[in-house]
Structures are given as C-alpha cells and as structure tokens.
Amino acid sequence: MLEGTIRNINYRTLGIALPNNKNSPKNINFQRSEQSKDSIFFRDGVRQIDFVLSYVDDMKKDSDIKAERRREFELNLRKTGLELEIEDKMNSEDGKTFFVKIHAPWEVLVTYAEVLGIKMPIKLSDIPRPKYPPLSYMLGPVKLPANVKYPHPEYFTAQFNRHRQELFLIEDEATFFPSSARNRIVYYILSRCPFGIEEGKKKIGIERLLNSNTYLSAYPLHDGQYWEPSKTPTHINERYILRQNWARFSYFYKEQPLDLIRNYYGEKIGIYFVFLGYYTEMLLIAALVGLACFIYGLLSMENNQSSNEICDPDIGGQMIMCPLCDEVCDYWRLNTTCLHSKFSHLFDNESTVFFAIFMGIWVTLFLEFWKQRQARLEYEWDLVDFEEEQQQLQLRPEFEAMCKRKKMNPVTKEMEPYMPLCHRIPWYFVSGATVTFGMALLLSSMVSIIVYRLSVFATFASFMESEATLQNVKSFFTPQMATNLSGSCLNCIVILILNFFYEKISAWITKMEIPRTYQEYESSLTLKMFLFQFVNYYSACFYVAFFKGKFVGYPGKYTYMFNLWRSEECDPAGCLVELTTQLTIIMIGKQLFGNIHEACQPLIFNWWRRRRTRTHSEKLYSRWEQDHDLQVFGQLGLFYEYLETVIQFGFVTLFVASFPLAPLFALMNNIMEIRVDAWKLTTQYRRPVAAKAHSIGVWQDILYGMAIVSVATNAFIVAFTSDIIPRLVYFYAYSQNSTEPLSGYVNNSLSVFLIADFPNHTAPMEKRDFTTCRYRDYRNPPDHENKYVPNMQFWHVLAAKMTFIIIMEHIVFLFKFLLAWMIPDVPRDVVEKIKREKLMTVKIIHDFELNKLKENLDFEYGTIKDDIVEDNRSVTDKTSI
C-alpha cells in the first residue's frame, strides 16, 4: 500500500496522469510546436499554470546576487512541492525576458487548503435559494441566465481537511479547487518562501524580490482570451463569460453575476462590486425622489410669488439696489436678476426641506440595509467564521529592511523585526507636519480661488453693468453668476491637479512612517487620502454654503478680505443657486474626468507596451506574455475605487439639499462605473491575486461618519443658505395680505440705505439722482434712532433658523435610531440558514467519523478474529502431533 502511495506521488510530481485517475486530462505527448498561443498549460499540456514569474537577466553589478536569489528561491519553491517550468528568453517576444511557470499539484493544494482554512463542499444544500419578489417577471430584461448568475449549486461546506478527503465532493481533482483558490494558495507559498540569509536574517517573500527587481512581476494567468470561449471541453473560460455577461457597456441595465465574479477574482474584489451595485440600486430611489422635487420646482416656477415680484417692473423694476463693489460698480435695478431668481426657485422651494429630511432617512436605510446585505453575503460566500488572513499581517519588506532589532512576537512565539517607538516618533512628527502643511496648502488654494472671485467680480461688474442695468433689462448672466461659473470651473481644474500631487505625497508620507504590515500601511494611507480629498473636494462647497454672504456687513461698513477686496454678497434670491452651480461643476467634472481616465489610461498604456515589446512577431506570443503586457491592478487598486465612491457619496449626502439632482447624476455615473471597472479588470489588467474579505473595512466607518455629518450640513444649508426660513417667518409673522401671504416679501427682505451715508472711497464714481438704495438684510432704516442696527425681524429669523436646525436634526436622528433599532443587522432567515448549515456540517462530519471508526473497528476485529483462528489451528496442529 505504501509503495502505491509513493508511486502515485511520484507520478503526480512528474505531471503524468495515472491510468484510472480522475484528473487524467488531455494529450500527454503534447509538443511545443503544437502549443497554442492561448495555452494555459505546461508544455506537456497536462499541468495547468497557476502562477507566472518574470525576470530579465541584466548585466549590472548586482546581477550575480539576483541570479543567486532566484536560484535559491526557485529551489525552495520546488522543495515545497510546487512544479516549475522555465521559458527561455529566446522564446519570448522581446528576446530578453525569462518566464517561470508554476503549477501546484494536488498534494500541495490539499495541504495548504487546510492551512488557509478554505471551505469546500461536502453536500448539496437543502436550503432553497431566495425567491424573487412578486411581479419579478417585470424585471426579466434585467436578469441574467441562471447558469451565469449561479454558476455552481449551493452546497454545505466545511474547512478542508486532507485527512478527510473522502468527506468532500471531489469529482475531478483538476477542477475541485477553483482557479482563484489555486492562485491564492500559490501566492501564500510565494510570500513565505525564503531566498537566502543576509546579515544573519532569513529573507523571505516574493514581494521583497519584486521590490529589489530580482523578479519583474508575479501574477496568476487569466483563464483564456476574453473574446473567445475555451477550445478545451474540460476547461471553462470564466473570463470570456464575464466579458460577455458583465464587462460590456451594452449590458448597463443588467444585474451583475456576483457569484462568478467572486469565483474568478476572489471575495475582496467581489464584495466591492456587490457594494457598488447595492449603492447604485439605492441611488435609484433617491434619484426618483430628487427628480420629483426638481419637477415640482419646475412646475411651480411661474407661480412663485418672490420671483414674480422681482420680475415685476412695478415692484422689482422700481427697487434701486446698492452697488456690488466699491467705486467702479453702479446702482442696478432688482428686476435685472429676474431669470436668476426663477432659476433659483428650481432648487430653493418647499420641497427642499422635505428632500433634506428624506435624504437623512435614506442614508440611514442605505447603511442599515447594507449591513443586512453584507450579512447575507457572508453566509452565501462562506465568510461567517472568517478571520483576517495571515498574509494581511505579513511584515512589509521596507519595515524589515529598516529594523535592526528583533523581538518575540507573543502570538507566533517567533523572533521578528522590531522598531522601538522612540525611533518611530521622528517619522511621525515629519508625517504629521507634512499632513498639516498639505492641509494648509489645500486651504490656501481655496483662499486663492476666493481671491480670484473677489478680484474678477469688480471686472465683471464694470463691463456687465451699464445703463442697461438701470433700465428694465433682464439678464441671466449677472456679475455674480459669471463670477461663480468661472470660479467653479477654475476650482474644478485646480482640484484635479492637486488631487494628482496629493496622491503621490500621501503615499510618500505613509512610506516614511514605516508601517509594520500591509494592513497598517493601507489604514494609514486611507486616513491621509480621505482627509486630503475631503478638504480638496468639499472646501469650496463649504465656503459657498456657510461663509459666502454671511459676513458681508452693510453699505458704508462692509467687511474686507486682507483689507483689499470686499466680501462677496449673495444674490437677492440667496446663495443656494451658487452652491448648486459649484456642486454640479465639481461633481460632474470629477466623474467625467475619472471615467475617461479609467477607460483610456490602461488602453493607451497596454497599446504602447505591446507595441514596444513585440519586436519579434514571428515568435509565439504566449498567454503568459500577453498577460505580462497588461496593466497591474496592484494592492491599492481597490483602495482608489472605494475612495472614489466614498467621495461621490459625500456629494450625494453632504450638500444634497442644494441639488436634488445629485443622486440622479451619481446613479448615471455608477451605472457606467460598474461596466468601466468590469471592462478594465477583465480585458486591460492582469488577473489580481484572489484575497478574502468579509466587509468593506474602514470605509464603512467613514460612511457612517459622513452620514451623521450630512444631517447637520443639510440642516444648516436649509436654514442659512436657502431662503425658505425667512419666507416662512414672513408668512406667519409679518404678512399683511391674507389672500396672498407672501405678497410683499421681497420688499420686506431688503433694507434701505441712505446714499449720502456712503464713505467717499466706496460710493460710485458716477453720481445719480437717487437718495436711497436697497440691500439684502434686516436692519433699521436711516430715519431710525438706531439706524442700520439689526431689527427685531433679524432676530426672529435667526431664532427660526436655529429652531429649524434643532428640530430637523432631532427628527432625522430619531428616525435614524428607530430604524437602526428596528432593522436587525443580520436578517432572521440568514440566522436560521447559518444555524441549519452549522448543524448539518457537524452532523455530516460526525457521521463520517463514526462510519470511519466502525470500518476501523471492523477491520481490527476481523484481523483479531483471523489471528485467533490461526492460533487455534496452530494449537490443534501441535496437539495432534
């Protein structure tokens, strides 16, 4: 029996199929000359390529050291049981790149599947899949074929154990472990394989070899070409299926094959697409409600009393407004902003309050239902008992290189590199100073934009204002609007430029901190990048929403920035429309640039790389070379995808009261984003190494924080940026007209200033016959004993604004807490399914062990019985003698 086992192992090690083995595949006498450029097998056509390493044999001074490291590394890989096959550089397209193909045989797979705790099927599940809701037949065009959406049946699973192989449903050893599990196992070995000893320390891991350019790249192969199915009947090209049913822009309305994505790319990438798809579905509800609010504003535009009064020649046409800047600006009539006030009503109407409250509740439902979706996903993808993988706790090569001391790890009980806190504090100070300087630089860029707006406003006002402004001429492009549009466009360009530089700075700062593990590195980078992007993208919106027009002063006593430029004023209709403009330009500009960049960059880089490397077109352009010429997704590939989504989430929630169409634009972007990400992953990037994850990680905490902040920001926008609260105060407390309560509101909201009170350096150079002008504020008139002092209505409006903020926040937070309490984190049916699977798994394993014990007992009993019979015969024979 032992001889047969050894013989089988030797055969498998050589890659030769046994006659009765289930994995006896294709043609053993496979010739190199017959090998297709699409082959994903060794030259024998039997062993599948699970991983590829590439290197160039350069002639630099350290080439001998690198060659020795590679020799030692590959020797140690063979000792672990991996099988290697090297392609000489003469067979490669560029004539200088070596490729090391790696195959993991069955013994290696079962050993490390047990080490990694990979769950594999033990029995078909008797729990039915979730049923489609009623009227689901109406969603027929959106659904994918069942064999694409659910590529495999549902199973009860258990952690693999190589001593219990008979327990698992192994129909074919070659396909039992999916390709994602195979490349994950191989990468686990690569990341822990030693390649030498330097200065008394053992050097391990493929990452260190990649950082030192000993190897150029390390990557798993794609299943095949994305434009054609597999030509081998026993091999399924999942890449082609994903391309046909997922990574196509014409399928933008289709659901995603999430199980297939998970099988091919692993859980970590799969959960990102689950989250993006779920977020997009929830945006559909917010987009419909926001669109309804916009339509309401559109339909009620002509009946808006404030706009009608501003546009009326007998009301707005008779109101002379104070100059918008010193000396060069002239007086102007209120009705010249007629079109601007009508446009403002689209986003500043009664539905604004409703939509702000609705979005506060929507974001709570979004996060609570995501918890449930995540819990359901953990069950469906066997992540219930998931623990952080050891590879996420692996020391970074940079950390090991910088450390000169060692310390006992209390968990592993092994000596590992250690850096005392006193040695790291200087780096933390440098990092903190750099972050502070970067934030100050970001704020200074925003101040520069404000200075630009202040400096060009007088220019716009000087040539846009003329005698026409004192006539009844209506114009949409007022000096405020022209300044806001140009400033917003400039701000968007500056944001995109600064974002590029701060990505590099954040990565550099994080490396300076010398994080111990990759997990610490990613967490530190996440904090910095989010802070930078938060300030970069949102600072201009915060300025328009909460600072512009709030500290202007009044005619004769204006406030000045740096004693040079007069503070910006809001339009008589309010600052909300300017916030809407700012938000629209930045949000849409970022999304357009991001999608174009994501789609074009890998396409152009891959074209150039193929053009540069394919110097010998007569040679075989093999699968490993094709994948080698693709872009690298990298360890931080998902980080930037999550960051982009979270920043968009901020636009949708933090300032949505000013722009109800923001969810609609985000929805359209995300529908395209899903297909762009799918397309580039499937066609333009090397296949990432599969990794496990049971949640979106730290991003979930960031989303919760932004959800809480959004309640406050939207309450303040409605109170201080919108004009709804002053209108309500006038409606209930100051209106004299019972039939039309808002009649006279415009006149009431504008205070009177005596032109004679203008200081000489602020009065317009051209003298007019007017004695008074109007400005937006609640102050006593010139004939009052306390002239230009805030009147009682000012305090009533301020009290109403503060009351509204308190009431709205309490209402939304009350709903948030109630919904969080009412909606369980884990759905009841998922809890029952988890219990059922655990029960069945324990029962199956118990029955298996019991049967095995009985077989052993029967065998031992039979052996003992045979021995007794033999002994009795011996005794009988002796007696007869």
Task: Describe what this molecule looks like in 3D.
- This protein is of the alpha+beta class and 881 residues long.
- The protein folds into two domains: 2-118 and 160-221, no CATH class; 255-730 and 805-822, no CATH class.
- 55% of the residues lie in helices and 8% in strands.
- It contains 26 helices and 18 strands.
- α3 crosses α6, α9 runs antiparallel to α10 (267-299) and α15 packs antiparallel against α16 (479-512).
- The protein starts with a helix and ends with a helix.
- This is Anoctamin.
- It is found in: Cell membrane; Membrane.
- The chain crosses the membrane at residues 271-299, 352-370, 425-452, 481-502, 525-546, 646-667, 702-722, 794-819.
- Belongs to the anoctamin family.
State which percent range the strand residues make up: 5-15%
Provide a count of the helices.
26
Kindly report how far apart the N and C termini lie: 38 Å
Helix content: 40-55%
Cα-based radius of gyration, to the nearest Å: 35 Å
Largest sheet: 4 strands, antiparallel
Mean pLDDT: 82
Class inferred from helices and paired strands: alpha+beta
What ranges have pLDDT less than 50 throughout 5 or more consecutive residues?
Answer: 1-34
* Major sheet strand order: 2-3-1-8
Number of structural units classed as domains: 2
Shape: elongated
Number of strands: 18
